[in-house]
């Protein structure tokens, strides 16, 4: 007995011993009232210090697993270890339709197997090699020294007030009139959208958006039971005439738009078209959910204000964003900016679901932003991403015989091929050569886009971008040659 105890690094030995003895007791290997070896004997048997055994025994006694009799030693306590009759449920029979739909739409489960040699154009997450870890540590230490006790306790559903105030100022600088507006802090963009969808009344169950659009948003729309109507995109944003025609023909509960560095097309809606859109939606009295995706990753041209800034004192725009695609996605901090009366109700839904977003995460992010580290990091990140973007554009033009390529900045490009080319078949061939990308059909509201794909380059080295694009181009040319 005890000869299977093995010490592993990185965890206090007394805890390992305590957990080992707990398992022995709960599994019935040590019987009730059985005497344990003395601390001296067990330390000798296991080649560990006697103090380690003393500490483990003291903890076990305090937790009720053993008891001590003065002058006699330590004994196993009466611990209930009997098991109920074994039953085995078929959980698939108990899963509801919404969960089956979520599983069906889960791209992460259906992706290709990971291999460190594979060139992955599938991600549009930030490059972790750029993360400003040293300054993040400083921000953490500084915030903990200021109010460490408070931020480790429960927080507020609406969010950490210093961060809310910072973000209100941040949005005001972008041109937003924050009069009668408020912010709700969320666990990233996705939770923000989910809370909004859960809170708005479903009058006709239809939403209108760009086609293609953000896959995660499409998933949530479907899970909430909405009928999705997509409007095709021009090179400067959604096709306004088609949008107006659709709005005139049918009623919708709201519109969902990504005006900056659109996912997946990378298109930036022009300032003129943003004004057109706001006039059009005002005419039809329709709420807008604006996805503030990657607004900061502008590599050239002038600043373009978000749609919510065009609303002025109006309250028909719900703006949802996060820093996930440019800063630290592991923090999972996003926000909803909207009319204060709407935020009042969203706060209650947030509280009912998750109580609040991690106060520690919010507080450290606030300190990082407040101390100016974000601006410094953004300059560096934009410089690196701009170079990757230019390389991707250059070599796509050189190697890939595309019909159309879009992407005005950000972390990805969108490629449209000839109608006869199936991007999933192209993906299969490229995968065999060690390169993968995101087939475009998953972003379309109507199942079209089978001749398109998204090329994310943010996490790749420059040589990988060039090599991967060449592989895609070569395989595409082979497919096109075979069709002649």
From TrEMBL:
InterPro entries recorded: Aminotransferase_I/II_large, HTH_trans_reg/aminotransferase, PyrdxlP-dep_Trfase, PyrdxlP-dep_Trfase_major, PyrdxlP-dep_Trfase_small, Tscrpt_reg_HTH_GntR, WH-like_DNA-bd_sf, WH_DNA-bd_sf
Coiled-coil segments on the chain, per record: none
Record keyword Transferase present: yes
Residue ranges of every copy of the HTH gntR-type domain listed in the record: 11-79
Example of a GO MF term: pyridoxal phosphate binding
Record keyword Transcription present: yes
Pfam (any one): Aminotran_1_2
Cofactor: pyridoxal 5'-phosphate
Keywords assigned: Aminotransferase, DNA-binding, Pyridoxal phosphate, Transcription, Transcription regulation, Transferase
Enzyme Commission number, as recorded: 2.6.1.9
PANTHER family to which the protein is assigned, alphabetical: HTH-TYPE TRANSCRIPTIONAL REGULATORY PROTEIN GABR
Family of this protein: In the C-terminal section; belongs to the class-I pyridoxal-phosphate-dependent aminotransferase family.
Protein name (database record): Histidinol-phosphate aminotransferase
